[in-house]
Specification:
single chain, about 525 residues, alpha/beta, 7-stranded mixed β-sheet
């Protein structure tokens, strides 16, 4: 019998009990672990977070919290090979694993640096350039301060980034002085568990600052209140269900979500075959389709191309995608691994069928794939699938196939038309515009900005340092309006402030000065 994956709750590792779900290797189909409900009362878990973890974090200055966070990130960096090895069981190539693992501890290190440079000595953040004076003599003033909330940051993470998804939520909460309870997605919970184990064994974080639950969290939401927060990443349906929970609504629990996203990339009319921008666009689409086997919340699902260039882009993509080698991570020549599991593969196939109702598949076969180093009948493998729609296609604007899938869509070459077409996705995390025409790029960015959390412009000049369409940077916001969840994560120190309470304090000048350092943040 394979071992049950433990949770780390109230200061110790606890094995789940009762009915368990078996998690299988995405490549071989062999069992990896079992996941069952933790034998624990979540009231005790929250009390431990608030009383032990929260008290310890609030007693630390921002600089001390940053040092603790940096040490935890360093521990992950020193043992990253262990996480790479586990990630291969989830279908990730070494390059895929680095996006998750290195991206995770790298984000934490960035946050530690932002805190050292941008937060004051002490535990209170002072806003406003100067106090507001309410009388002629300056005897009564007012100013805004930020203090740590006294609750728990509950994070519910998606399967595709078990390390980065956890660290990008954990880092700002720790800096804010708020303890975290991390809930892993079942298919990759064993990777998240090992990352937590590494941090716990390092001793970098104070007791109670980080707890981890591998299995269900039944009853947890009933215990949350207005001092707590929930950060959710997953489907729009689940986000809607959690957002409407009576505790979230009735007690004003802080809730933010990152959900489905039909991200778009726009090829400018100036980017014709032979231009640098044309090649950059094609390379970008292939990268976003194949990295993590397309299982990225920021992957390009809709590729908008001037109608006159649609055939050329399709041909170029077909040639590039034809060079993709699907197979077992680490096998000779493999450039794209498996999806996280056969359930996910089957879900993507179902969604491809929906997309094909008003678009046609022009590259790949969802029911057939050549695989290197593994058995295609057992592993969760899928060939890259490119569809081509027209101006009447609607499904591509409604359905996300969370895998190596993208749809080519035409527009008439004008910024006005592509802006209207992109908006049909009803809100996304990320978009990109690939063009050397500054006027077209500006008009398009300003047109689509209201529908996106982030927009990247790519041309031959910026390409050497571009971080890429699909990579959120910790200094910039990650989130999006509408169907993308309506939330924000990261964004530099904005994410720290999210976990703190803003309070307007009024009083005399001596009293106000006693609350915070003379130099504001």
């Amino acid at each position: 019998m394979i071992d049950s994956l433990p949770s780390y709750l109230a200061g110790r590792w606890r094995t789940g009990t009762g009915d368990a779900r078996v998690v299988r290797d995405a490549v071989t189909g062999e069992p990896v672990t079992r996941i069952a409900a933790a034998d624990v009362d979540f009231a005790d878990v929250l009390a431990y977070a608030r009383d032990v973890g929260g008290s310890a974090l609030r007693a630390m200055t921002f600089a001390e919290r940053a040092a603790s966070l940096k040490a935890a990130a360093a521990a992950l960096g020193e043992r990253k090979d262990e996480l790479y090895e586990l990630s291969a069981k989830a279908g990730s190539t070494r390059a895929d694993a680095k996006v998750d693992v290195d991206g995770g501890f790298g984000t934490a290190i960035v946050y530690a640096g932002l805190a050292r440079k941008g937060l004051p000595d002490g535990t209170v953040i002072v806003e406003d350039d100067a106090p507001t004076q309410f009388g002629k003599q300056g005897l009564f003033l007012g100013r805004h301060i930020l203090t740590s909330r006294r609750g728990t940051a509950v994070q519910i993470n998606a399967f595709n980034f078990p390390v980065w998804g956890m660290l990008e939520k954990l880092a700002p909460a720790l800096l804010a002085g708020v303890p975290t309870l991390a809930k892993a997605a079942t298919p990759t919970a064993y990777i998240a568990e090992h990352a937590v184990r590494i941090m716990v064994e390092s001793g970098a974080l104070p007791d109670g600052a980080l707890q981890f639950v591998a299995g269900p969290i039944n009853g947890l939401f009933d215990l949350l209140d207005g001092q707590d927060s929930v950060g959710f990443t997953g489907s729009a349906d689940t986000a809607a269900s959690l957002r409407s929970h009576p505790s979230v609504v009735g007690r004003s629990v802080h809730f933010t979500a990152e959900a489905d996203s039909l991200n778009a990339s726009v090829l400018g009319p100036d980017a014709t075959p032979g231009s640098a921008e044309f090649d950059l666009y094609v390379d970008q689409i292939v990268t976003e389709m194949t990295t993590k086997a397309g299982q990225k919340c920021t992957a390009i699902r809709r590729a908008f191309v001037p109608a006159a260039q649609l055939d050329a882009v399709q041909d170029a993509l077909a040639a590039k995608l034809g060079d993709v080698v699907v197979g077992a991570p680490g096998a000779d020549g493999v450039t794209m691994g498996a999806l996280v599991g056969t359930d996910q593969r089957d879900d993507v196939r179902t969604r491809i069928a929906s997309l094909a109702a008003d678009a046609r598949i022009v590259v790949g076969d969802p029911d057939s794939v050549d695989v290197v180093g593994a058995d295609a009948r057992i592993g969760a493998f899928l060939a890259p699938i490119l569809l081509r729609g027209d101006e009447n296609s609607q499904t591509a604007h409604d359905v996300e196939a969370f895998g190596p899938v993208s749809t080519l869509l035409p527009y008439d070459g004008s910024s006005a038309d592509v802006t209207a077409q992109v908006a049909r996705g009803h809100g996304s995390l990320a978009a990109s515009v690939v063009s050397a025409d500054a006027d077209f790029a500006k008009e398009t960015v300003l047109g689509i900005a209201a529908h996106h959390g982030r927009v990247l412009v790519l041309d031959r000049d910026s390409a050497p340092e571009s971080t890429g369409h699909g990579i959120p940077m910790p200094q910039l916001v990650h989130g999006g309006p509408g169907r993308a969840g309506g939330g924000e994560e990261e964004g530099g120190l904005r994410a720290v402030y999210h976990h703190m309470q803003r309070t307007a304090v009024q009083g005399g000048p001596d009293f106000l000065t006693s609350l915070y350092p003379a130099r504001p943040a």
